[in-house]
Amino acid sequence: MLEKLASSLRLMAAGLALTLAVPVMSQAKPIQPDYVTLSKKLTPTVVNIRTVKIVKPRQRVQRPQFQNPFDDLFNEFFGRFNDQGQRPKREQGLGTGFLISSEGHIVTNNHVISGADEVIVKLADGRELKGEIKGKDEKLDLALIKITGSTPFPYAEMGDSEVLQVGEPVMAIGNPFGLSHTVTAGIVSAKGRVIGSGPYDDFIQTDASINPGNSGGPLFDAKGRVVGINTAIIAGGGGGIGFAIPINIAREVVTQLRESGKVTRGYLGVNMQPLSPELARSFGLESSDGALVSNVQKGTPADKAGLKAGDVILKYDGKPIKDGNELPRYVAATPVDKKVRMLIFRDGQKQEVTVVVARMSDGEAAAVQGEAGENAKIGINVQELNAELAAKIGIKDAKGLVVVEVKPGSPADGVGISVGDLIVDINGNRPDTLEKFVAVASKVKKGEIVRLLVRKIDGTMMYVAMKAE
């Protein structure tokens, strides 16, 4: 009897365990998008964009000739022949776009329509309509086109790229190599990619196949909402890697283009750079989060707010700054004349400053002088600058300290110090003479961090940090 009871209890326990396990497994099972249904629904919102650019022929330069009786006949015959090859040429380009309103507003990349004299939009139903460029933004590589029709157009719904996660399924629709309305699928491979295409890089990386002709097309999430605008691919051996502009960044730009045809961005007037772990430690920070101010331009909002080189911006308008690439995007998206609070780190302390954002304009050791002083700990050779040396190196300033040699493989070489760089600051000290520089450098022990603020030949200011040898 006891054995039967024990057996029954074991079976009940096993059944209970099975019952409890089933819901957990079902919750972990990923939901596969219905690409067939999504394709049928979303294809009509995607358009083929064909551009025509009229290229005028170059004017021929007439070389002087010796006069002879046959000149007039020669020029008349060959002049007519050459003129036939001097007619304007029509260069065509292809790209993709997607409708965002029933009135016919279309979003695409600026590089798709840049320089175009004609824009022809082909819809999924085969209609071809003339497109009007309503506005464009070169910095973010976005453009807005308008078409007109007798009936409302189907349009795509915009999603939220901020909540998009790495590993989520995505689908792209475009016109790769001129093949109309091609559907590809993949996942989000990464977010926040910086690929050097502009000042506001923040791309979604995807393995959904993107090729020439896909530019300007939509990247959809599993629910069929636009989360990105396909913009770039890695050339050469980077097959299978594409990049899309997050829709959250594009949305505000598109709104401005729709309302006014141009984009207004916020402006602080600082040069910034990311914090390396070595730089962070040199400033007394435990984390490399934040944006390091390397230069403050005079008369700008940042200057009026009291910011200075060496400040580390930790928060901007309540948003934590993880790296220096985030801050330009936040500032650019800030309304003009808005008062913004920033949390900064200065001289070992955190403090708040308030800045009024402006409008971005379209344009913005040797004791004997002359002998080189060598700092063997970091591998540079510096010299006091004079007019002769300044002219030789090709810089205008004739005062301060200049790098005249960088030892290959040294710490300085590893962080990008170059001959001609001006030493503005070393570990918080401003060395205007060689003796002052050596006095500070000689105190650095092996393994310690040396921080330099240098002015490059092109005028940009940059902090670097290296470990002394």
Number of strands: 27
Low-confidence stretches: 8-28, 61-74, 363-374
Mean pLDDT, all residues: 80
CATH class category of the largest domain: Mainly Beta
Give a written overview of the molecule.
There is one protein chain. With 469 residues, this protein is an alpha+beta fold. The chain has four domains: 46-57 and 75-146, Thrombin, subunit H (Beta Barrel), CATH 2.40.10.10; 169-260, Thrombin, subunit H; 266-359, Pdz3 Domain, CATH 2.30.42; 373-467, Roll (Pdz3 Domain). Helix content is 22%, strand content 33%. The chain has eleven helices and 27 strands. The protein has helices at residues 2-28, 35-42, 71-84, 110-113, 247-260, 277-283, 301-304, 326-332, 387-393, 411-414, 434-441, and strands at 46-55, 89-99, 105-108, 118-122, 128-130, 132-137, 142-146, 169-174, 182-193, 203-206, 218-220, 226-233, 242-246, 266-267, 270-274, 291-296, 312-316, 319-320, 339-346, 349-356, 358-359, 373-375, 380-384, 401-406, 422-426, 449-455, 461-467. It has a seven-stranded antiparallel sheet with strand order 5-4-1-2-3-7-6. Strands 8-9-10-13-12-11 form a six-stranded antiparallel beta barrel. The longest helix is centred in the N-terminal third of the chain and has 27 residues, at 2-28. It is elongated and about 80 Å long. 35% of the residues are buried. Mean pLDDT is 80; it is low at 8-28, 61-74 and 363-374.
